[in-house]
Structure formats: C-alpha cells, structure tokens
Amino acid sequence: MCLGIPGRVIEIRDDAGLPMGKVDFGGVRKEACLAYLPEVQLGDYVIIHVGFAISRVDEDEALKTLEILATMGDLVEQELATMGPGMDAPAVVSDDGTPATGAFGGAPS
Amino acid sequence: MKYLDEYRDPVLAKKLVEEIHRITTRPWTLMEVCGGQTHTIVKQGIDEALPAGVRMVHGPGCPVCVTPLEQIDKALAIATRPDVIFTSYGDMLRVPGSTTDLLALKARGADVRIVYSPLDAVRIAAANPDRQVVFFAVGFETTAPANATSVAEAARRGIDNFSVLVSHVLVPPAMIALLESPANEVQAFLAAGHVCAVMGWTEYEPIAAKYRVPIVVTGFEPLDLLEGILMAIRQLEDGRAEVENQYARAVKREGVPLAQRQIFEVFEVGERKWRGIGEIPASGYRLREPYARFDAERRFAVEDIHTREHPACIAGAILTGEKTPLDCTAYGVLCFPQKPLGAPMVSSEGTCAAFFAAGRGIGTPARPLPQVAPIGFVPAPAGTSTGPVAAPAPAVRAASAPEASR
User: Fold this and answer.
1) How do residues A77-102 score in pLDDT, each as one tens digit?
2) pTM summary value
3) For residue B155, is pLDDT > 70?
4) DSSP state of B366
5) Is B135 on the interface with A (CB under 8 A)?
6) Which residues on B lie below 8 Å from A61 (Cβ)?
7) Beta-ladder partners of B87
8) Phi, then psi, of B216 in degrees rounded to 5
C-alpha cells in the first residue's frame, strides 16, 4: 500500500468541490484526487499513492538525475582506465566485468 | 512506463555498483527506512552486490508491520459487529491479530471490504446510510493526507456513519528512537522518498546534525537505491553528515504544503505504540478534537483492548534491524506468507515477506540463532585505505556468514 507510482494526468475535473482526475499508468487508468497539487496540468506526470497525487514529477530533475548517472559511469571508466596493473587497490571487476571482490578483498558478495 | 523503466537500466546499475565499490574503503552499515525500498533491494539483490562489509539494515518503514497487535484486535472487534462495513487497504487483511485476522472474519461472513483509496470508503458510507462504515487508517506520512482527506470529506458532506480506526506513524521519531538505542549500528539512512515527497526533508536536518548521521532522501527504483547508497557512502567516507536528496524528481525541500495543511487540519501529533518496538512519544497522528466524532475507537468503545505478541516472533528485532529473518527460528518453518506469525511476513513490504519472496533461506532446516558480532564503526588500519582491509574482515564475515551460506 505504501507504493507510489508515476502516471500521466489525462483528465482534470471538479467533483463537488474536490479536485479529481484520471491518471494513465502505461495504459491502466485510475481515478485520483488532485487536491494537493493545484498547479498540475493535463499531460503532467504525478506520483499516485492510495488514489491521491502526492507529488508532481519534475521533468528537468528527472533528466538531470539520469544525466548525472550516465556521466558518472563515464567517470568511472576514465578512472579505471588510468589505473594500470600493479596498483594497490583490489580489482573492482573481474575479467568478465562482474563485481568480483569488495573493497576489502572479501569473497564475492 | 515513463519515469520507471529508465531507472531500471542494468548498464547504469552496474556502473553505480562499480562506483560504490571504488569509493568504499571500510565497512559501513546503512538503513533503508521504507518497506518499498526493502522490497526492491532484496528482490534485485542490491544488498548482495555491495562491497563486503557494507551492510543494508532493513528499517521499520512498513506501516502494516508496525501497526500494533491491539489495533488489529480493535479492528477485528469492530468488524465482527453486524451493523459495520469494515474497509481497509488490502495489505491489512491477513495481518494476524491475537486470535484471527480480517480475511478469516470476512470468510465467516463479516462485511470486510478492500478499498484502494480512503475516498472509496467514504463513498461506501454515502451509499449505505443505514450501516456504520469504518476505515482502517494506517500508514506513514505518505498516506496521511489521503486518510485526512477522507475524514474531512465525510465531515464536509455530513456523512456521519463514517469513522476511522487510526494507527498513523511517523518516520523521524522512529529514526531518533533507533539512533538513541544502545544497540544501534546504523551509520547512515536512506530516507523514504514518498514520505519526504509529502513532508519535505527539513525535519531530518536536525537529526543528521545531532547524531552525525548522513541522511539521503531516496527513490524506489534500483538506480535510485544504488545512487542513494552511493551518496550515503560518499558522505560517510568524507566524514560528512548532511541531508541530501537523491529523489529530486519527486521531492522538494518543503514537501507539498497543501497536503501537510490537510494532515494538520484533521490530525495532531501524539504518542503511538509500534508493533515490536513499543510506545514512542510524539510518533504518530491522532484525530484532532473537532474530528473526534469520526474516531472509531470511541464510537465502538474498543479503547481498552490490549494484547500480546506470539512468543516465537522476533518482529521487533527485525523491525529495528537488529536481526534479519534468517536469524529467526520460525522463519519459513512456523511462519510463511500463507500463515504469518508476525506482521513483517504479511505485507509485501515487510522484511520477512521480501526475503521469502526472494527465496532467501527457504528449504533449510531451522537452526539456532547465530552469534552476530557487532559491526560498528571499525577504523581502517592506517595506510590501507585503498587496499584490502584485513582487520575488520573477520567480524564482517561472521555477521554476514548466514546470508553468504544461503
């Protein structure tokens, strides 16, 4: 019950004083109460929890997070590329690319 | 689905795991507070991909699990009344009370109905004016605005045959209770993203400062959790203790003000009993006096019900992260999802149910509780920060051995 799922607002209406709407979750459509987010527009993504929109998804922040994640991957690769053989640090990945040892040289976790 | 699939990218996940391995120089113990996060961590095996010695402790953030037994017994007492339609989120139906559960009552003819939203319960009340309709208002801050709105709507529309059995709990007081415990081993928290979506994170700033504990507001997808773990470990490695926000696409510092206003119009903060933990001051919500007539405990005079837990169940130690389900003699033997002894086995967000669903430790005979060596802060020997850390390894291995052997 505690889960919240992002969905797209496809209908906004007033239900006897209570702002309500329909939200599309990749084809599945559900009723939702929009009372806490008066700024929400048709087409916005919101996070729905027990039939209530509890947050509007910030598209810029969503893209930023993905960009940071993607860039960080490159940084890791650059960092790994600078590490020649014979360094002190234990191998982070084995030859097949899977994490092989922890930073403590422990068994595969 | 948009905003879900891109946060499940296995290539990015692998890079995040590599980065976590790269920056980690010593053992750390992190707690994810929310049961939804526990489910993803265990299902995806995120905890098992972390460096040896980095331990995820599963926190008390499953509302179904921390609802005290006596609230369940009160629900059962109310639901058996012939004039009552008892409505609840589906997860609460199989939570065992001292003698039975709501689902069994339903099978015996009680009018127990699952609702998706508390507004559905209000609608049922409007459609059945000759019956009493009770809604089991459980949950953390995430669910509080919805439950509050149902009460406010019933009041606004004059639906007087509606009432709520309240068992609302709050995250920050539970975190403080854990941090104050002498047995505490948690060094950083992943705060629950959707709780913070509603409430913001200002409440967590004094906690991070006072207890010198990093707190990272974290989402629920695998990449969110890995990034949250990375941010928390980075803080620990840097010696910082701040509140950071990994889940920026859904969480703002101030939260959602209208949702908070709705909560505090209907509820006020009060003491709450937590299943397995006990009473924590100022750790939950109760109805404000203007809405007291919607209190099902008063309406049906069940305030004096008090009950005790099953003796074999270690739910309390599970909920505080002191023990894992694999430490429990009843896990998978006396206690499984079809016949749960305690609440963490009931909800899909419960730690025991998450372990069971992932097949951890199933099919092996019961065994005595292992001696778990404490994994507190173990400083890395000087000069070995980039190399294997020999000294703390035995303690870490001893503690993680049960998982490793399964």
Assistant:
1) 555 454 443 333 334 444 454 444 43
2) 0.80
3) yes
4) P
5) no
6) 248-249
7) B113, B135
8) -115, 115
CB atoms B250 and A18 under 8 Å: no
Smallest CA-to-CA distance from B386 within B54, B52, B23, B49 is with B23
Handedness of CA B300, B60, B261, A11 (dihedral sign): negative
Count of the separate structural domains present in chain B: 1
Of B19, B21, B250, which has the smallest distance from its Cβ to A55's Cβ? B250
| Structural domain that includes position B276 | 1-362+376-406
Residue found by looking up tokens 């930073």 in the block: A103
Domains of chain A: 5-57 (2.30.30.140)
Look up residue B71 and give its two tokens. Answer: 């609230």
State how far the alpha carbon of B365 is from the alpha carbons of B334, B337, B351, B402, in Å.
Answer: 11, 17, 20, 13
Nearest to A73 by CA among B239, B230, B48: B230
Residues of chain A with Cβ-Cβ distance to B389 below 8 Å are 103-105
Strand partners, B61: B34
pLDDT tens profile B350-405: 899 999 999 998 864 444 444 433 333 333 344 444 333 333 333 333 333 333 33
Would residue B163 count as lying in a domain? yes
Q: For residue B208, give both structure tokens.
A: 């991070």
Q: A39-68 burial, b if ≥16 CB within 10 A, otherwise e?
A: ebeeebbbbbbbbbbbbbbbeebbeebbee
